[in-house]
Amino acid sequence: MQILVRNLSRETTEHDVRLQFREYGRVTECTLVLDKETGKSKGFAFVTMPDAEEAKVAIKELNLTMFGGSKIRVKFAGH
Fold first, then answer.
1. First to last CA, the chain
2. pLDDT at residue number 51
3. Phi then psi dihedrals of residue 76, to 5 deg
4. Region 39-59: what's the mean pLDDT?
5. Would you say the C-alpha torsion 17, 61, 73, 56 has a positive or negative sign?
6. CA dist., res. 64 & res. 34, Å (int)
7. Cα–Cα distance, 25 to 36 (Å, whole number)
8. What is the enclosing helix (H) or strand (E) of 76?
9. RRM domain: from which residue to which, for each copy (predicted)?
10. What integer is the mean pLDDT of 1-21?
11. Which domains does the chain have, with CATH numbers?
């Protein structure tokens, strides 16, 4: 299940995001979206968790929490 994480601090790394979501289950992919010109974070990422129940718990627990100095928004990506 793919999860969208928004409002990340520009200093947050892909590794930081992966570690945060691993607390709730297995993470098979984590992609921090970078600006093509500057190489810096655009402030959002996609996380893939294969277990839907683990993903639901991660979304519920992490949405609107402080992470890296920013209040993040977490929801299902896509449809």
1. 11
2. 97
3. -65, 140
4. 97
5. positive
6. 22
7. 31
8. strand 73-76
9. 1-79
10. 96
11. 2-33+41-67 (3.30.70.330)
